[in-house]
Input
Amino acid sequence: MAVSFEILKYFQNLERGSYDKVAANIDMMLDMGYSFGIRTTFTPDSVCQMSKMVEELSTRFPRLRQVVFDTVLSNEIFKTPEMLQDYCDNFLREYMAAKEQGKRLNIKVQSVAVETLSFIRDRACKGKIALTPMGTISICARVSSPQESLYDKYIYGNVENGVLNLDEEKFRKIIDENNIYSQDFCHNCFAKWNCGGGCRLFHQSFNAEFLKVKCNFTQKALRQELFNVLQDNFLHPQKIGLQDFINNKIKANDI
Ligand code: SF4
Output
């Protein structure tokens, strides 16, 4: 179970409300020994607060030892590709700093948007069985209301008289739409087996200019993860770090 929680009182009340109640329920679940995680979603306003949130977890909820940081997905928030670019740059930089902060405070900070190195997949999402308030089944937990334009496209079943009905043909059709085989632009991407072709909802909510920004983010994050692994395993007789080693080579025109 995951609790969507913005950690800092100001952002919880701004984005979701009821900070005091949610914080009290988290305390109660910790007291009862329930197994759950915290998921924090960052807007352009909160994205530079990641390290502060990790710090807050360590003081206000010292028994919580891990947190998942997620990106926001909304074409109402990102009106131009430049706005998305700023957000992605901030997210990556802040996330790397918050992860280091987490290591110092013994809190595991994770993000599936950033950390794709451990994945091997040909599609990013295998499809959910998300029960909506309408009693229908959506392929994506983020699309659940008939007021949303993608609703009809994403619904592939319902629950009626206690019976779950699934349209398997529609499920397969939806699943086959977004993956590294069906999307031409993924074919030559070095990140394709880690990314899996990206989020279906993102593809269907934004145009190609935005997609380019999102792909750059995924590729840059993967490069950073690869670099971190190399750096952790880089042994130099004079104990020079990998980044300095490369910089020295570049300076000496030796690369
Ligand atoms: S980063 Fe972009 S191009 Fe590369 S696999 Fe993912 S969606 Fe496709």
User: Anything to note?
Assistant: Residues 184-247 form one domain. The chain has three domains: 2-110, 130-175, 184-247. Strands lie at 2-4, 37-42, 66-71, 108-110, 130-131, 136-138, 155-160, 163-166. Residues 81-105 form the longest helix (25 residues).
